[in-house]
Amino acid sequence: MTRTPTEVAHAVAEVFRGVFDQLAEWREPIRALLGAGGEVRAQTLDTVVADLVIPRLEEADPMLVGAGFIADGEVVRGRGVHFAWWLGPLDDNPVLGSTTEPTRLDLSTRGYTEYLRDFRALEWYRIPATTRHAHVTGPYVDHLCTCDYILTLTMPVHDRDEERMVGVIGADVAVRRLEHALLAAFLEVDAPLALVNQDGRVVLSTDPGLQVGQLVEAGSSSVDVEGTPFVVRVGSVASGSSSKI
Predict the structure, then answer these.
(1) For residue 75, which of 67, 66, 85, 84 has the smallest C-alpha distance?
(2) What is the pLDDT of residues 10-69, one digit of tens each?
């Protein structure tokens, strides 16, 4: 069986559409809890979010490696920054070791999270806040949790009047899990393919000369991946900087 680059782009779009649909589904219970205004207790919010995201993280061969909700300031009582975020089971993680069940992200145990105090400036929060639309950040190396290349998908959550953003609902997808889901389809095209983000950074590729996170120059033909910031580039792609995030 062979595929066309357009068919591969459709397969990529379907994967991301599934994650975005899940975020939209999770958004409504959180909006119902926070949308009326005022503060909510951290434990109340955490319980709601955990009940939503943990079942997806416990799936066999899950696409998501982490998921949760990041609350804007003055939403959670007594908290300026609140991450209601869970990590799926991890294999031989250099930060957390091996885990067999979802675990809560505990920022108090991380000595290198000072940058999160200004989380509104980070891409995964800033872009949804500015555009009011869902966003994909990455690929980048997640030094906070997985120590691996990931893509972070986030979606804004607003109050009932659609005026104030109370936070973002999000999920992390490991690039290696995306490869597991899509690489077979990429290999069914005769020419080398590369999935590339809007900045020219490689997500996955069947060109052995291209690595995840590598920047590539424009010039090859490409197919847009609907609903995402990605394109599928066709043919040998001249490499640019090999620097990684």
Answers:
(1) 84
(2) 999 999 999 999 999 999 999 999 876 678 999 999 999 999 999 999 998 899 999 999
CATH fold of 5-177: Beta-Lactamase (3.30.450)
Q: Domain residue spans in the chain?
A: 5-177
Distance between CA atoms of residues 140 and 148, nearest Å? 8
Residue corresponding to tokens 């995030």: 245
Taking each helix axis from N to C terminus, what angle separates 5-34 and 175-187, rounded to the nearest 10 degrees?
150
pLDDT in tens, 145-195: 777 899 999 999 998 888 889 999 999 999 999 999 999 999 999 999 999
Quick check: pTM over 0.85?
yes
Q: How many residues are recorded in the chain?
A: 245
Residue pair 109/103 in contact by the 8 Å Cβ criterion: no
d(CA 102, CA 188) in angstroms, rounded, equals 35
Comparing CA positions, the residue from 172, 171, 166 lying closest to residue 71 is 166
